[in-house]
């Protein structure tokens, strides 16, 4: 839980924030108080659990049919369903990608584990949604819904070169193919840039057998990245991010994956599968020059 004491001192507000081992503020590294976003430190690596209580509306974007739902903590979330197209592998990519982005200081809505009760979809009149809820019973993944956020538009919005380089490095590291001009998966909220939708990352796990080879490859799809034209400080970012993403940090993030999500027909050993995710990410960090140079090369190629 999060305990907050607020007291006024002249024109200032003093926040006394005490963290326990059971969670963090509603927006991870940021706390919203009276419509003002305040950055606070995260002291523990935790993912909260919530129970979905109300299906609000579908978000008919992409093939996964995410939805806005309400949970038993009275917050709204964007729920990603385990019963959708890519199953739990998309949820694993969302969890790893989002928490790595957060560890690197980028803004990501809080990620929570969201439980869908077997009885939840019985009163849903839409058969497609009813089936999705039925196949998604149990543990799913959700992100805090940023009410009032608008899609990032590269024509209207601008980011500085250092932030652009951070996001390009992140997506090259994760092999995230879904941050293009057509679908930026970036939101402007509270005048800040927020990252969403990392479910298309880590696509090696859909084949699985050649993960070692995939971990060493450059990310050629970076040529389509929406922020690539502004990513001029990739070498500086590479040095900084390599120092942050230690073996211990990677293991702590991969350790968040629920064991039940790591069991599949082609690779039934959950412990071995967890080690594969760890080693894949560590290999990419240790050989980050492969994807960093690819991004720098892509910047030089005329469009």
What does this molecule look like?
It is built from eight helices and twelve strands. It starts with a strand and ends with a helix. It is globular and about 55 Å long. It has helices at residues 88-103, 127-134, 161-174, 211-215, 234-244, 247-254, 270-286, 288-300; strands spanning 2-9, 12-19, 30-33, 36-39, 48-58, 67-71, 76-80, 111-116, 138-144, 150-151, 186-189, 192-195. The chain is 30% helix and 22% strand. The protein has 303 residues and is of the alpha+beta class. The longest helix is centred in the last third of the chain and has 17 residues, at 270-286. Helix 3 crosses helix 5 (234-244) and helix 6 packs antiparallel against helix 7 (270-286). The strands form four sheets. The protein has a five-stranded mixed barrel with strand order 5-6-7-9-8. It has a three-stranded antiparallel beta sheet with strand order 10-11-12, with no helix packed on it. A two-stranded antiparallel ribbon has the order 1-2. The protein has three domains: 2-39, no CATH class; 48-144, no CATH class; 150-300, no CATH class.
